[in-house]
Each structure stands twice: as C-alpha cells, then as structure tokens.
Amino acid sequence: MIPISLSSPAVTTSLSLSHHLNPVQGLDKCSSMAELKQFHSQIIRLGLSSDNNIMGRGIKFCALSDHGDLSYAHKLFDKISHPDTFIYNTLIRGYLQCYLARECLILYLRMLHHSVLPNSFTFPSLVRACCIDNWVEQGLQIHAYAIKFGFLDDGICQNNLVYMYVSFGCMEEARRVFDKMPQRDAVSWTTLISGYSRLGLVKDASEVFRTMPNRNSAAWSSMIATYVQHNLFNEAFALFNEMRTKNIELDTYVIASMLSACSKLGALEQGEWIHGYIKRNEIEMDTKLATTVIDWYCKCGCLEKAFEVFDGLQSKGISTWNCMIGGFAMHGRGEAAIELFKAMERGGVASDSITFLNVLNACAHSGLVETGRYYFKHMSRVHGLKPRVEHFGCLVDLLGRVGLLDEATKVVEEEMPMEADARVLGALVGACKIHGNIELGVKFGKRLIELDPYNSGRYVLLANLYASAGKWEEVANIRKLMNDRGVKKTPGISVIEMEGIVSEFVAGGRAHPESNEIYCKLDEMLDRIRCLGYVPDTDEVLQDIVEEEKENPLNYHSEKLAIAYGLLKAKPGQTIRISKNLRVCRDCHQASKLISKAFNRKIIVRDRNRFHHFRDGECSCNDFW
C-alpha cells in the first residue's frame, strides 16, 4: 500500500473557502485535485474514510473528471476495506478512458476474487477494454461472463459486444449477437453496417441498411460513406438523392462523404447543391469542412470559387492552406501557389511535409526549375523538415520534365539517402519517354516493373518506350510478361456530369443509352477538327500495324466520347468538365485543344496528374504535362 500524504501544500491551501461544505457536498462540487485533497483530509478527520458512498464520489472525480488524477483514485481505492460494485465500475471506467486495458481486466478479476458481483454497467467497459489491444480471447471470456451473470439481454452490453466483434473483424460472431438481440437500436444497426464496410462487404452492409426499420441520419451517413470509400459513386449518389427526397436532415458526415465523392468524380452540380445546403442551414464551416469544400471546388476545376471560400475563412488551419496551395499546383498555377505559400509564411503558420510536397508539385507542373531547387533546400534549411522520398520524387519530376535528365539521374543514383521507390522511378522513366532518351528510360523502366510488378501502367510506360524506338519484339515481350504475371491493363475511364447525372465512358464503349447519338456527334467532332489540321498521333498505339489502322482505337478514347456527350447536352457557353483516371494521351490532348476552338467551348479535363483547361485551341499546361 502507498500511504496517502496529507501534508502537501495542495491539501492545506484555500481550506477556508471549502470548510463550510460537508464532505458529500464538497466532493460533488469539486473542481480541482487541490480541492479534492482538502475534502479527503476532512473525511479522514471525521472518520468517514470507510463510507463507500463518500469515497466512491471522490474516486469518481479522480478517475473520470478532466481535472482528476487516476493514480490518486487508485490510492483512494486501496484504502477502502470493502469497495462495492459502483466503486469498481468507476475505476474500471477511469482505466478505460486512459486506454489501460490490462488494468481494467485485472481490476475485474480482483472484483470476482473478493466476491463483488458485477452489474449491467460493468461489462460494457470490459468489452471496450478488450477492443483496445484486439484481445480476442479475453473478449470471448468477458462475453461468457456476461452470459453467466445474466446480462446478455442488456441492450448496452449487447451493443458493445457487437462493436467488439466488429473491431475484431469477426462478423459472424457480431451478426450472431445482433440477431439474438430482442431490441435493436440505431447504434447496433449502424455498428454492423460499419463492420461490413470495413471488411469490404458492401453488399452485406447494404442488406443490413435496407432491413433497418427506422433509419436515422447516422445510418444513412454510414452507408453513403461505405459506397464512397469503395468507389461506388453511382450508388452513393442514388442513396444521397433518396435521402434528399425523404427530407432527412444532412449531418456534417454525410456532407463530407458526398463532397468527397463529388471531388473524385468532378461532379460540380451535385456539389453546388451541397454547398448551398451548408449556407442555407448555416452549418458551421469548421476547418475540416472548409477544407473539404475547397478540395471539391479545386477538383471540379473551379479554382476561383475555391479561393473565394478559402479567402473568406476567419480561421485557416494547416490543412486548409495545404489544400489551396495543392489546388493551384494541380491547375498549373505555380506562381500563385508560391505566392500563397509566402503569405502562409508571413502569417506565421507552421509548414509541414505536405505543404512542401504541394509547393514542389507546383514547381514541377509549371516548369519552375530554379524555384523548385530553392524550396527543396528551403524546407530543411529554414523549416527543419527532412525531405522524404515523395519530395525527391517531385524534384526528379521537375528536372525530368524540362529535360535535365542527367541531373535527375544524379538525384536518383547519388543524392537520395533512401532507395528510390516506384513513384520516383516512374517520374524519371516518364521524362525519358517525353524527351526520347530510350536507353536511359529502358534502364530505369526495367527496375520500375520489378519494384511495382502489379501496376499495369509501369509496363505500358516501358512498352511505349520500346514502341517509340520501333522495337516491336520487345513490346511483345512486355505483353507476355504482363500475361505471365496476371497483370491486366487498367482501362481508361472518363466521367462527366450533365444535368445532375454522372456518366462514365470507356474506350469504344456503347453502354450509354444515348450511344448512337454520342458516336454521331463524335464523327462530326472529328470531321470539324480535321479541317483545323488534326492528324491522329499514333505513336502511343502499341501495335506494329499500318498507320491507317492505328487511328481507329484513338478515335474512340474515353475522353473523346465524354466530350462528344458534353457537346450534345451542354447549354450554349457552358463549360464541359471531365475527369479521367489515367494520364491524358498526346492525341486526346491535341484533339481537345482543337475541339475547344472548333466548337468555341471551354473544356476542363482532370487527369491522374493535373488539370488541363482547353480554350481557343490552347491548353493551360502549355503542352507541359
């Protein structure tokens, strides 16, 4: 036993302020450990230290209050000769709040050893304690104890058991507990949905959601988040529209999930409705929500609106600054990104590694070589941030894009303190392809596919290098290697939102209900740009066939189909916005420039790396991507 000292200054100070209260009143009104210790000294002098009711109140303050002291709570506990269930439960909860799972279970065993019976408040805390360190075996034992003491029908205990098995990934056991519950509340339903979602069992999650009798906002939010997390955006939008139809109040979690989906798809109209909802309902724009809105506007190509939201914020967190700098970077607005970073420094906001990743990306996408070199050194020299492999990747990308291949190679082979990963080598090989250095590209391309053997894009990049050199036998060998390893080429997918409906296109696809009209529009589109000098760029077609035959697959690339659909549906003067999962090919880039001129349209395409703003036959990237 550790004796409790009553002679500390904390015990003797300000006693005159509290002596008029009796110990019970004093403990209930306690606001600091100094006061608690004063009352504890009174309790001892009055001979009340064996009173469980009084001591339990003291332990509750020490164990559960924000101003308490868990170690002092344990000292009080050790001084009690016969602590009751309430006192044990209180101390167990205190240990749980501090994530001390082992102490929770030891205290429970001590409770049993002294023949103190648990009650309905005991097991929820014990179950949660088992979740902290993923103690499956101990969790099963606690479940058995709950059955033994007759608390399995308790709703709170059952909800916690469902949560426990979900956290273990034991969905069969979670479902077994759930199915035996006489009454299920929203917590149990939502917990089960989240559990299936975490394991990627989206169909099971959806079935639970659909059978839920009274779906609350949390359940809708959980199901929508499930769809978004697993890239099932059409399902997410359908469920969101159903939620709106039923006039269910949108909480910040639903809003954040849907804006994330809108960001990934470039869905502007749906996102604008959500932003309007935020304004109409005066929902607080905290840092997290503001960052989500800014990110969505940036990824929909509305950089001015993104900055308008950013500029109007009273308080800006580091994530908000990073998001806006990153937005300028992906749109090729390198100078604006640097100016914003300088404003961030002037404002005394501490930068982090993500800040410099965005700054270096901005330099890479805008060809700001000297600026990029300066800030690469600046991050460690001024901010004390050690460059990570991602930062070296940006530097290699920057140098490679402008043709400084020797310098980029030196960074990879001599200057990096760590091994170059697939992203770094990918940037270098891509630069070799752009600048026609086949030998260097093949050297690093072979290393690249061994580093990232299941990424189809790495093989395609190497095959393109061989194809540009006319080495068709090597192209065939790359294809055979892909087949042998079971690697399938990722299909290009382009997404466009028109009239609030999101449509997906794949190369040569005819799944869209208006495909006949789309292909007619595509033929018209190609005829008009041929009059402006369009000649298909067949260099990237990986087939040793005659030029005339190469043109056909290029004509039906997914972004061309999406643009044709946009021209069919868009109102006069309306900007056509498209998102693509892969990098835009040279042919589609050239075609898009000419389409913007032939049809007098602004076309914004977001590919895997950046944004392209096409207008009057030009692109914002200045053919630098």
How does this structure look, described?
The protein is mainly alpha-helical and 625 residues long. Among the domains are: 1-82, no CATH class; 414-490, Alpha Horseshoe (Serine Threonine Protein Phosphatase 5, Tetratricopeptide repeat); 494-619, no CATH class. The chain is built from 33 helices and six strands. It has helices at 9-12, 23-28, 33-45, 52-64, 70-78, 85-97, 101-113, 122-132, 136-148, 155-168, 171-179, 186-198, 202-211, 217-229, 233-245, 252-265, 268-280, 287-299, 303-311, 318-330, 334-346, 353-366, 369-381, 389-401, 405-415, 422-434, 438-451, 456-468, 472-485, 515-530, 547-555, 558-569, 586-598, and strands at 493-498, 501-506, 576-580, 603-606, 611-615, 618-619. It has a six-stranded mixed β-sheet, covered by helices on one side. Helix 12 (186-198) packs parallel to helix 14 and helix 18 runs antiparallel to helix 19 (303-311). The protein is elongated.
Strand order of the largest sheet: 2-1-3-4-5-6
> Rough shape?
elongated
Strand content: under 5%
- Please provide the count of β strands: 6
The structural class is mainly alpha
Q: Averaged pLDDT, please? A: 88
* Radius of gyration based on Cα positions: 32 Å
Total DSSP helices: 33
Biggest sheet record: 6 strands, mixed
Distance between the termini: 71 Å
Unreliable stretches covering 5 or more consecutive residues:
1-19, 544-551
